[in-house]
């Protein structure tokens, strides 16, 4: 957490000095084992790849989900992105969501979506997911 806070602080200082507006960041707090849904708004009029990215606990950015959106048919998963079974992505012409089932502490981090249309990619505002509380314990019986 402190590393993410330091990185965000440095980013804040750099953006403040350059007079670039800082994007809105939402913070979601969840307990281990709960399901969390993160939303991204857009207005798609043509074919687009929609990605979900994350930065978690000292990681470089990586994509956790991807779908190909087509206005004329249902969206389909991207074959080149390995998607965890705990991450469920939904897409329509105005929104995309990423639902993370049974969150745990390793899911804490920054999440955002990216939309690639033609040769351009645009990114959404970020959501910081903070998983707090105790890790659920399994009951162990000793014989």
TrEMBL record:
Superkingdom per UniProt: Eukaryota
Glycoprotein found in the keyword field: yes
InterPro entries per the UniProt record, alphabetical: Ig-like_dom, Ig-like_dom_sf, Ig-like_fold, Ig_sub, Ig_V-set, TCR_complex_component
Main location: membrane
PROSITE patterns recorded: IG_LIKE
Keyword annotations from UniProtKB, A to Z: Cell membrane, Disulfide bond, Glycoprotein, Immunity, Membrane, Signal
Pfam families attached to this UniProt entry: V-set
UniProt GO BP: immune system process; response to bacterium
Domain Ig-like, residue spans: 23-124
Cellular component annotations (GO), alphabetically ordered: plasma membrane
Compartments, record wording: Cell membrane
Matching PANTHER family: T CELL RECEPTOR ALPHA VARIABLE 4, T-CELL RECEPTOR ALPHA CHAIN V REGION-RELATED
Protein name: Ig-like domain-containing protein
Organism: Electrophorus electricus
């Amino acid at each position: 957490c402190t590393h993410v806070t330091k990185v965000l602080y440095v980013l804040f200082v750099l953006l403040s000095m350059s007079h670039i507006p800082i994007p809105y960041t939402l913070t979601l707090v969840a307990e281990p084992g709960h399901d969390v849904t993160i939303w991204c708004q857009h207005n798609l009029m043509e074919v687009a790849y929609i990605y979900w990215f994350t930065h978690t606990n000292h990681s470089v950015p990586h994509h956790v989900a991807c779908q190909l959106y087509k206005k004329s048919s249902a969206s389909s998963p991207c074959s080149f992105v390995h998607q965890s079974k705990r991450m469920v992505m939904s897409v329509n012409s105005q929104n995309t969501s990423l639902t993370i089932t049974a969150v745990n502490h390793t899911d804490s981090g920054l999440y955002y979506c990216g939309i690639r249309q033609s040769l351009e990619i645009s990114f959404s505002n970020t959501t910081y997911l903070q998983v707090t509380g105790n890790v659920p314990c399994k009951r162990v019986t000793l014989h």
